[in-house]
Specification:
single chain, alpha+beta, 8-stranded mixed β-sheet, 14 helices, 29 strands
Length: 546
């Protein structure tokens, strides 16, 4: 007897239309699949994260080492034995594990993979010169094994396009006048001075790239020479984990690295870049596996990456959520862009729509960053909603305790008369984003040329990440632990130390009921800009208290 993929997947993901089918792979072609073994003590991990992240807890800041995390969640001896025996019975012995022993990455031929996972059929797909191998059909797993696995990675998920659907949208500006966001503009708006740069030896930050995107060291150096003259900074990345491609620099990669390094200035910076050794690898999953295998990691990671929740299996998202908890208990802050599609829109059938949340933005264990624009695009003024700013309510994760009463209940009461119909969203789901920053009209250096009008929450996320790195710097110099998972502390501030954004709405479904409008900004927290944008000196003071 075999259990079909419904054991793992709530729905079988369609191959996106922008991928071209090339054909079946050769049976002898080598694949690499990732087996996510069931972990132990996930509830205890969640409790521990809550305690070490709550400033009112006696355990605040008492983060765990990778070894301590491993001893907590390591799969049972039985689970490890059953999965390894299953693999070995199919002749699969070329496997790597991680320090936490909850992932196995195994290489095998396509023929062996299709025997191991009945129903799977591996095909090659291409898009924009990128080639990947995935299964076009659901797989099954023997019922003796399925209870020991969360999912098998490398079969179905094709990477989405980058978040920046809007990356070159141009401002309709009078007579061609354009201010444009640069490091100097950000420093002016968020009240960073020339002395707000890193000095701690044991501090570092990182960006992670997954979409065949590469940054160019020459572009970074050029950007810093043009825009970094007024403050001390690094002009080079200290460590690249993975393989940098030889192609042209990617817009998103350049944006991420240039702005985390100019905001979190003078702080050692890493880049995680993973095109994968095999066409069957999933780069995002590969990054998560790496985090479970490295004891020395940067304190802040910013990631501009997301997928529609409904395109992923619940089992996959739940397990990735546990991986975020594993990072949080170690004192690592994970920041994700909220997306560039506003509330999103999913067509459910005849004249029936709903908003479309994005993951990992909707995970309760990451800090999600939305986007804003200047009220007057020609001046450093107050901020309003950027209409692309992703936000809303998860259909998978319940609303975490840290945000229910303090944030969401208050918002629902304040704007009750103007809320979209409840059929469009899950009122009890994790609400996001948590905070925001400018996401509109950035200057980026790419292929040695300054390019204007780059927009998206891919811009706001590294800016917030850089500021949190600066705050970590001051905490480490005082002998305090790194901030770690920020949300419980952020929500207890109740908007203190942030500029509240109260104007504007983001995109929603283009239909008769909501007419293109999602949620709207309001005083205090809202599902468009979170608690608002950072007032750096005030946020530093608030987060240095203990």
């Amino acid at each position: 007897m075999h259990f079909l993929i419904s054991v793992f997947f709530s729905s079988f993901p369609r191959i996106p239309e922008d991928w071209t089918h090339v054909g079946r792979v050769n049976p002898t072609e080598e694949l690499e699949l990732t087996f996510a073994l069931k972990q132990q003590n996930v509830n205890l991990l969640e409790e521990t994260l809550s305690l070490v992240s709550d400033p009112d807890s006696a355990s605040y800041g008492k983060h765990l080492t990778l070894e301590e995390v491993s001893s907590l969640v390591r799969p049972s001896e039985l689970t490890q034995k059953v999965v390894r025996h299953w693999l070995q019975s199919h002749g699969i012995t070329n496997c790597l594990t991680v320090r936490t022993q909850d992932f196995l990455q195994c290489t095998m031929t396509a023929e062996v993979a299709e025997t191991l996972l009945p129903g799977s059929k591996f095909h090659r797909y291409t898009r924009d010169g990128q080639s990947l191998v995935r299964s076009s059909a659901p797989y099954s797993v023997h019922d003796d094994v399925h209870q020991h696995l969360d999912f098998v990675g490398g079969l179905h998920r094709l990477p989405p396009r980058g978040l920046q659907d809007s990356s070159n949208r141009k401002q309709k500006s009078k007579a061609g006048v354009h201010l444009g966001v640069t490091p100097a503009i950000l420093r002016a708006r968020y009240n960073l001075t020339a002395t707000d740069v890193g000095t701690a030896q044991n501090n570092s930050q990182a960006v992670a790239q997954f979409l065949e995107q590469y940054y160019s060291p020459a572009d970074l150096a050029e950007f810093m020479s043009m825009y970094g003259r007024s403050f001390q900074h690094h002009s080079q990345v200290d460590r690249v984990v993975g393989t940098q491609g030889a192609g042209k620099a990617g817009l998103e990669a350049s944006l991420d690295i240039e702005y985390i390094m100019s905001t979190g200035a003078n702080i050692s910076t890493w880049v995680f870049t993973n095109p994968g050794r095999h066409e069957s690898q999933e780069p995002f999953l590969q990054w998560m596996v790496l985090l479970s295998n490295m004891s020395d990691l940067p304190w802040v990671h910013t990631i501009s990456y997301g997928d529609d929740e409904d395109s992923l299996s619940t089992a996959y998202m739940m397990r990735i959520n546990t991986e975020f908890m594993k990072a949080g208990v170690r004192g690592i802050s994970l920041l994700f862009a909220s997306g560039d599609s506003g509330a999103g829109c999913r067509h459910l059938g005849k004249e029936q729509n709903s908003f479309r949340p994005s993951f990992p933005a909707s995970s309760p264990y990451v800090t999600t960053v939305g986007g804003t624009s200047f009220k007057n695009p020609f001046k450093v003024t107050y901020e309003v909603t950027d209409y692309i700013s992703g936000g809303g309510f998860s259909n998978v994760f319940k609303m975490p305790d840290y945000q229910v009463i303090i944030a969401v209940d208050a918002y629902m009461k304040t704007v009750a008369a103007t809320l979209p119909p409840q059929s469009y969203y899950n009122t009890s789901g994790r609400a996001y984003p948590d905070m925001a920053a400018l996401s509109d009209n950035y200057w980026v250096v790419i292929n040695r040329v300054p390019v204007p009008w780059v927009s998206g929450t891919s811009a706001s996320t590294p800016v917030v990440g850089g500021m949190l790195s600066l705050i970590n710097d001051q905490r480490l110099l005082k002998g305090l632990p790194a901030l770690g998972f920020l949300n419980p502390r952020l929500y207890k501030l109740k908007g203190q130390a942030l500029f509240d954004v109260t104007e504007g709405c983001h995109l929603g479904c283009l239909d008769e009921q909501v007419q293109g409008k999602g949620f709207c900004a309001a005083p205090s927290w809202d599902p468009v800009t979170g608690w608002g944008t950072p007032n750096y000196p005030a946020l530093l003071a608030a987060l240095l208290a203990k």
